[in-house]
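Handout, section 3.2

Students often ask what a structure token actually looks like in practice. Rather than define it abstractly, here is a full record for ABC transporter permease. The first block is the sequence as you would receive it.
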Amino acid sequence: MKRYMFKRFGMLLGILFGVLTITFFLTRVLPSSPVEMMLGAKPTAEQVAQAKVELGLDQPLLYQYASYVKNALMGDFGVSLRTGQTVTADIQSHMLATIELVTIAITLSVMIGVPIGVWSAVKRNTMVDQGARSLSIIGVAVPSFFLAIMLQMLFYGVLGWFPLQGRISAELMIDSGFSPITGFFLLDAAISQNWLVFNDVLSHMVLPILTLSLSTLAIFVRTTRNLMVEVLKQDYVRTGHAYGLNPKRIYFFYALKATLIPLLTVVGLTYGFMLGNSVIVESVFDWPGIGRYVVNAVITNDFPAVMGVTLFLSGSYLMVNFIVDLIYFSVDPRLTPQE
């Protein structure tokens, strides 16, 4: 088992190194220059030369690459040209907002999508099944940005139920004396028992979570249904019915348990995908997460920030799937690591 873990972790590091290499050289061959970001319009030749020295762009390309790899191994991704802070500090201040949003969204998607998928398989070729399949097709087909805008127009513009954007009301952040503890605002408000802030944060989260959940809900409904259709044909399911066991116990304990391995794979892949895909949702709802941060970095040619976020998202995606691989052996002890 240890050998398998080291092997998988080594592969993870190798992929991260490849992402770092590709990202570095792509940012160097693009026509835009970070010098423009630093100096603005019409800089003098002396200013350009000085800026290149400060950024290390006057050095040979391979030397720049070796220096960046060395610093990255120590967790130093440079200084953001837009914010003036280290990229590591910027990522730390923005990633918790994204993780909070994505974690709640995928939890809701699994809790709702899996039961719907199970009943869709049980009621195969009925109205229930047709409705679930139609829901999954619509969820995949509707673009996230369009869904987000429609939700804003309905629940903010027409009904006035939820805020338009942001993570917390500015006046409440100032006047309530709310001080984040963990960085997860919903959890922090509950810990401090500040229910006014809790309700405000929750109201700001509803629309972005709904946008993320509806698109991933379709994935879990479709995947669970397809897996359950095959499992329900197995002999032990028919035997359970013959012995008079509770149908819900058969479907949600025995049959669903047999689908956990592929279902866990989908959950892990989807969670990693959502961390990067939240860019659109965060931009529409002005959510101060890692997605909006990298969009602003791309727009302003903030190369250190773009490279740092790319590595962070790649590492997060790989780490989630690494953890899922290890969970396999807890779910099904019959599995043995492939050395």
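Discussion prompt for tutorial groups: Residues 93-331 form a domain with the MetI-like fold fold (CATH 1.10.3720.10). How would you have guessed this from the sequence alone?
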